[in-house]
Design a protein that fits this description.
This protein is 46% helix and 11% strand. By secondary structure, the protein is of the alpha/beta class. It has one domain (2-52, 120-282): Glycoside hydrolase/deacetylase (TIM Barrel, Alpha-Beta Barrel). Strand 2, helix 2 (39-48) and strand 3 form a beta-alpha-beta unit.
Length: 284
């Protein structure tokens, strides 16, 4: 089991939540936003907590680019910001060939910026799982040998377990499941061909922002065999995090869940072995 958190570097409150979930709880990995408002603080915090694995949380929508606007005019606006529309951006990235060169330069720039921190790259995932976009995935696989990408998130979530635990927003979850089933089926073959490891399944996609203690206590006894990632958005909510995240996100409750003695006891009772992305990448 890998417990991970997204948006490291988004804000000081997010950073504080992630470090607390690692230091006092079960969190093993975090995804770093290299252009987040609190990236420098996140890097310093990670350096002070070397057992926390840190990967790249690739941002190609709803955030700031690394390249200046003049170098990515078809990707960003005059302020250097990506589109806030996941569907619109996804369609443009797939159907507009002239964007691919700019996309590759931006992805390369984010990887370079990550490596410049001195942190070891534990894995790659993406904001709103944009790393699973076929165009983006092709670029990442092409760059993987150069940048040492050895593991990647695969958002393949067992829908029947998710719906059994929380039947709210059933239609949205079914649409997500169908969409990501196709994306991950394509990605699994590509990742295997390039020797890049990934968890066998994941939880947190359909429950994004609501990975609370009751949810975790429901998931842990029902885990399929193999390696599982549970990812969340734990944080001490602050203005910068609230600027970017949906208003109903339960980030503080997710932090409480990751530091809960009940969750630790459930992990032990189920015989679950906590691991990190680094250990997954090195396993055979």
């Amino acid at each position: 089991m890998i417990f991970s958190a997204d948006d490291f570097g988004m804000s000081l409150g997010v950073n504080h939540g992630i470090i607390a979930a690692h230091r006092d709880g079960v969190l093993s990995n975090a995804g770093l936003m290299v252009n987040g408002a609190a990236c420098a603080d996140a890097v310093a915090q990670a350096a002070a907590h070397p057992r926390l694995g840190v990967g790249l949380h690739l941002v190609l929508l709803q955030g700031r680019a690394t390249l200046p606007p003049a170098d990515a005019p078809a990707l960003v606006d005059a302020a250097g910001m990506f589109s806030n529309s996941p569907v619109g951006a996804g369609l443009r990235y797939f159907f507009t060939p002239r964007l691919r060169g700019q996309l590759e330069r931006e992805i390369r720039a984010q990887l370079e910026k990550f490596l410049s921190t001195g942190l070891a790259l534990s894995h790659v995932d993406g904001h709103l799982n944009i790393h699973m976009h076929p165009t983006v995935l092709d670029i990442l696989l092409r760059l993987a040998p150069q940048y040492g990408i050895r593991a990647m998130r695969l958002p393949r979530e067992p829908l029947h377990i998710s719906l059994r635990l929380d039947k709210r927003e059933r239609v949205r979850k079914i649409v997500e499941s169908v969409t990501f089933a196709a994306l991950t089926a394509h990605a699994r073959r590509r990742l295997a061909a390039h020797g890049i490891r990934h968890p066998d399944q994941l939880f947190g996609l359909h429950q994004s922002g609501h990975v609370t203690e009751p949810y975790l206590l429901g998931v842990l006894p029902r885990l399929p065999s193999g390696a599982t990632e549970i990812y969340c958005h734990a944080a001490v909510p602050d203005a910068e995090a609230c600027r970017w995240r949906p208003s109903d996100y339960e980030s503080a409750a997710e932090l409480a869940a990751l530091t809960s003695p009940n969750v630790r006891a459930a992990i032990a009772a189920a015989g679950i072995i906590p691991i990190s992305y680094e250990e997954l990448a090195c396993s055979t």
